[in-house]
């Protein structure tokens, strides 16, 4: 059976996340009650509409969180990084999964069942409050995604999502031309799903920004050359 290093888990958890303020003793109890799962790239971790009886703590890799709209189009809500908690909503209320999660890269995750989490909250009541705070942040982020879908035209919408990828921990340092390179190598189709745009719209918009010196494309990978210009575009209506 695979084990999880407790200090490594503590370092992974982002500030304000569900288990971020846990002591080493509490983290040890979480690890003892969880099961480590491996997911190759592309593998489904959870499916929208299925019953959910467990949450997952992402230990490594990147996972794509998405929902299927009524018209059949996939809307990508987020790209989750190591340390993030997934599937907590259905785990709590016993309802159906509100989103699908797929491994974007090879992922390792710690699975914690509803029963195990109930035992933890009985022993450590403060976890229940942190859970409510985590759910509020998740709802706020989802509302922002829906707002961007409805309120912004394609250019500002794409700019906002590129900045989210960069600011939200998806920056991998600087490229050779000094620009900020996104950590995730997303195809134009994947960017379109994330920004709520067609592949053709993405292609036209990125080409226009390349001509203006705002971004650069290298083998399909986006590098942000003029972050301030992109921020200005993101704030347009």
From TrEMBL:
GO cellular component, one term: cytosol
GO molecular function, one term: DNA-binding transcription factor activity
Source organism superkingdom: Bacteria
Alphabetized UniProt keyword annotations: DNA-binding, Transcription, Transcription regulation
Residues passing through the membrane, by range: none
Pfam families per record: cNMP_binding (PF00027), HTH_Crp_2 (PF13545)
Protein name as annotated: Crp/Fnr family transcriptional regulator
Species this chain originates from: Croceicoccus naphthovorans
